[in-house]
From TrEMBL:
This is SUMO1 activating enzyme subunit 1. One of its GO terms (biological process) is protein sumoylation. It comes from Myripristis murdjan (pinecone soldierfish). InterPro entries: ThiF/MoeB/HesA (IPR045886), ThiF_NAD_FAD-bd (IPR000594), Ubiquitin-activating_enz (IPR035985). GO terms for molecular function: SUMO activating enzyme activity.
């Protein structure tokens, strides 16, 4: 049983005031105090996770916990700047710790090499926000449902080649404004045969349906599409696309065959964009300084633009 961390009144020291002077001028002392009183769990230390970690540490949260059971590989070294090239074979979270801490010694950074699926519920309830990257659909839904009962903010995100997304669930009534945030389960289980959903189909980014395909691939294979098995994985992706779009009762023409050419590996520039948005959304939610996205953000690196949209019940 893990003891819940007592919320304490955050105090900004003179040293911290100097460190965060620009941010305090930008969004005010109260917002920075709220940020300095917040603890965040970051799951997944791939390229996207490294970007999010950097942004949260530099913003000045109280504590950041890194959780990842994967090992450093040659591919992760290309997209992940927190791990040294000499760290191949080591745990990604632990290999990221030294450089992450160096970014801002005022932030308490910890690393755990465990599988997130093996962590008990109480582990996730220690934090003010949980950010999940590179996770299975089942784990994301589980953590989102668990944390929503305790008013803990949940963020999810991934990068697949040129594509990236983020999702946020800040609760039914986030403190900043009376905005309704649906759960991830609700967002992914839209009934596309309903008249309301049909009416919104034209303005729904095709990336939403691509996300379904990629999450199903991860569930079925236990990994993401691998460039080393491009031909085999491309064929499987097209088959999963057909099955997913049929199960959702939407047109099979939504995703053309060439989508498979753009969703392999984490690309550093896409990680930087999506990680910047995701990190900023966590900061906004914790500091309560600006209106947050509701609920999805999708990025298509081929077009160089992002789309914000909302799915779920009103």
């Amino acid at each position: 049983m893990i003891d819940m961390i007592e919320k304490e009144e955050p105090i900004i020291s003179e040293e911290e005031a100097a460190q965060y002077d620009r941010q305090i001028r930008l969004w005010g002392l109260d917002a920075q105090k709220r940020l300095r009183g917040s603890r965040v769990l970051l799951v997944g230390l791939g390229g996207l996770g490294a970007e999010v970690a950097k942004n949260l540490i530099l913003a000045g949260v109280k504590g950041l916990t890194l959780l990842d059971h994967e090992q450093v590989t040659e591919e992760s070294c290309r997209a992940q700047f927190l791990v040294p090239v000499t760290a191949r074979g080591q745990n990604r979270a632990q290999a990221s710790l030294e450089r992450a801490q160096y970014l801002n010694p005022m932030v308490e950074v910890r690393a755990y090499p465990d599988r997130p699926e093996d962590k008990p519920d109480d582990f996730f309830l220690q934090f003010d926000a949980v950010c999940l990257t590179g996770c299975s659909r089942d784990l994301m839904v589980r953590v989102d449902q668990l944390c929503s009962q305790r008013n803990i903010k949940v963020f999810c995100g991934d990068v697949y080649g040129y594509y990236g997304y983020m999702f946020s669930d800040l609760g039914k009534e986030h403190h900043y404004a009376l905005r309704i945030f649906c759960s991830l389960k609700e967002a992914l289980e839209v009934d596309w045969t309903s008249e309301k959903a049909k009416a919104s189909l034209k303005r729904t980014p095709v990336d939403y349906f691509l996300l379904h395909v990629l999450l199903k691939f991860r569930t079925d294979k236990g990994r993401d599409p691998d460039p080393q098995s491009f031909a085999e994985d491309s064929q499987l992706l097209r088959q999963i696309r057909d099955d997913v779009l049929e199960s959702l009762a939407v047109s099979g023409d939504l995703l053309s065959d060439d989508f498979v050419s753009y969703c392999f590996s984490e690309m550093s520039p896409v990680c930087a964009v999506v990680g910047g948005v995701l990190g900023q959304e966590v900061v906004k939610a914790l500091s309560q300084r600006d209106a947050p996205h509701r609920n999805f953000f999708f990025f298509d690196g081929r077009k160089g633009n992002g789309v914000v949209d909302y799915f779920g019940p009103n």
